[in-house]
Design a protein that fits this description.
13 strands, alpha/beta, two-stranded parallel sheet, about 40% helix, 11 helices
Length: about 325
């Protein structure tokens, strides 16, 4: 039985990855960052809590002794680093904390592997935010596209991406980067634009809200489903060699497109949408569209969810749960 350790196991990606790995026969361990409201810490993994309760540990990416204690004891076959301050807008308000959890946290994990568990395969959750507004002539971003981030979050992710490559070459650690483009689900935090749109639209439909307030409606993203992307994570670590891979759908849609689909599906007038400068980034990333051909050729991975199927699942979730 292979063992896996997941940082951020109670996040969107961590919870889906945990479910996937359990189905594949792994023994899964998870790292939780303590917060004062313990009831909220594991709600995303409640359906599998009994299977992994004994394997959940408190630690912090910025606290190397806590990481070393776990990694040296578990010596996992796979380590997935999904924990971080992951909200781009908030990274402008908390740039130091964002940088510490992402940059310092990644180094801490790599150092722990180097010193106490050198056979562990390491997955780093890199991000399309690293590209910024850099884009190829054909409209895509790929592994060879120059990376010029436009946010503290993207900058921290780029540092972590590069340090993974350095440790891979310098110390022969099996360390890979998954450059994941935007991926959503009903488990996405409601302060992220996609789930904010789905939730607020259902609230409006049920007379519980009057309007949806957003920032830049023309921002374009390559949106996929988190379930598809966690499959890619495991495939990347089971690939014969460590490498860096873009994971995306190859299609781009604007925030306006997302709103149009949701509001039309729920038969809500578009005048319920307003914009506010409060939700604009100081430095806007205009468009993302990923070329995942390298990942597909290496592992056979391709997305199973369509853009609209992903949104339908998010709407259905809120229709079932909004009254609760």
């Amino acid at each position: 039985m292979k063992t896996a350790l997941i940082t951020g196991i109670n996040g969107q990606d961590g919870s889906y990855l945990c479910e996937h790995l359990l189905q594949e026969g792994y023994k899964v361990y998870g790292i939780l960052k303590r917060n004062s409201v313990t009831e909220n810490q594991t709600f995303r993994i409640n359906s599998i809590f009994d299977e992994i309760a004994d394997n959940l540990e408190y630690a912090d990416l910025t606290d190397m002794p806590s990481l070393l204690r776990l990694i040296s004891t578990i010596k996992p076959d796979h380590l997935y680093n999904l924990g971080a301050q992951s909200h781009v807008q908030i990274s402008f308000n908390q740039p130091v904390y964002t940088s510490k959890t992402i940059s310092e946290g990644t180094i801490n994990l790599l150092e722990c592997i180097k010193s106490s568990s050198p056979k562990t395969k390491f997955y780093q959750a890199s991000s399309s935010e690293m590209f910024g507004n850099s884009i190829e002539k054909d409209g895509f971003q790929r592994e060879s596209t120059p990376m010029i981030p436009v946010s503290p979050y993207g900058s921290a992710k780029l540092f972590a991406y590069n340090i993974v490559r350095i440790y891979r070459k310098s110390y022969k650690i099996f360390a890979s980067n998954g450059i994941l483009f935007n991926h959503e689900s009903p488990r996405r935090g409601i302060n992220f634009v996609t789930n904010k749109i789905a939730r607020e639209a259902v609230m409006i439909k049920n007379g519980l809200s009057d309007k949806l307030v957003l920032g830049n409606l023309q921002a374009k993203r390559d949106w996929g489903h988190a379930k598809d992307y966690v499959r890619a994570m495991e495939m990347i670590l089971n690939h014969k060699e460590p490498d860096d891979f873009v994971c995306a759908t190859g299609q781009t849609h604007s925030v306006q497109d997302f709103c149009d689909y949701v509001f039309k599906k729920l038969n809500i007038p578009m005048n319920k949408i307003e914009t506010s400068s409060k939700y604009l980034r100081p430095y806007e990333l205009e468009e993302l569209k990923g070329d995942f051909s390298k990942l597909k050729n290496a592992t056979g991975w391709k997305p199973e969810y369509t853009f609209h199927e992903m949104i339908d699942e998010m709407i259905e979730h809120w229709e079932k749960n909004i009254s609760k």
